[in-house]
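Lecture 7 notes: from sequence to structure.
We start with the chain below.
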Amino acid sequence: MDPALLAAYDRPVPRYTSYPTAAQFTPSVGPAQHADWLRDLNEVSASLYVHVPFCRELCWYCACHTKAMNRPGTLDSYADALLGELEALARAAPGLILQAVQWGGGTPSQLGPARLQTVGRRITELFDRRSDAEISLEIDPRHCDSEIASAAAAIGVTRVSLGVQDFDEGVQAAINRRQSFADTADAVDRLRAAGIGRFNIDLVYGLPCQTLETLAATLDLALKLGPDRFAVFGYAHVPWMKPHQKLIDDADLPDDALRARMSALVAERLVAAGYCRIGLDHYARPGDRLANAAADGSLHRNFQGYVADQAAFVAGIGASAISSLPRGFTQNVADPARYLATVGKDGLATARGIALTRDDRLRGAIIERVMCQNAVDLEALCREHRVDPDAFRASVDPDLDRLERDGLILRADARVTVTETGRPFVRFVCAAFDRHYVAAEGRHSRGL
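Predicted structure tokens for the same chain:
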């Protein structure tokens, strides 16, 4: 990749799992407004996201809302809080139809088999879950015994995401996550024995002490496991947000040029192995629901990444969980202790959010198309959102001009297409449509 191009775009940029991004959320949206907005989901299809902010131990690379937690009393209290928030959701939207349920974290399986089943069964009791709903669960393969696998199957889990990150021992030592290939393969076998046949592997490039050679070896091992999907993320080094990342020596991190080569290596290896490239960082086997959605234009992106379900909205429960609702976004209190106290008062733990304007909806639709399809018809979306196409295009033309000069996009009338050169820079293409974007240090992770 051209070093001058890398240098020109060496700046922070959002990951665009929503628009407006969470950086624009404010405390002006609280529990009362959240409860009112939830009523819009009555008799509506949506996804449910369940956030569990606990892990057995803390990995130094992690930028998720999570902490090490092994105390049974705290896990009991957290499960009770999830049940309370589910009840509040059912009061607001008793006719909610679930197209998908996603358990994320942290490590949701840290709740343990009994708590998982208690919460999972309550979801089924309270809401109309579609028979073909995908129910996904994130699991740490190092702590996936037969009881966890059986509990996942008992609550209807159809897909498991297994965190790997990297199989190299040197990289694992640098991120405080030791995980053998054998342990991971054993977890896959247990899940399959329990009747869960679909699973994803999560990997990360740009980690400390990682090289092209170690990454290639990790990819080779991961392919032996035969996952249906891969999610391969670029490491986000944000020590100002996640202080434990200060335990990683900056000198051990690959530079932007090497990160770009790592990204290209991932795409090359996985596509050669028969996987379809999905958006920015996902890969799926042909025939997988995610690959089909990418092919037919129905792929969506939300705070859980790329999704194949057609639910336009997400109801989130748990500490830090974000809901994407017809009138706006809301986010729960992030600190688990504060979350427990807040849910105990009124069943909701909303801390902040943002109401959507017509302009937000248009720009959000454009950004989602760019992130999912690497192309967008600006005129068609403007007319769909009742916005003058010529006026809107004039407002973004200066930013698009530079992207086109740099070879990152092509324009034909109102259609904008991301080039192959531009694929690694797709977040910067999205930023051209983001009226809030400020490339300030300490606000977002680096864009490459």
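Points to note: The first helix runs from residue 3 to 8. The first strand starts at residue 45 and ends at 52.
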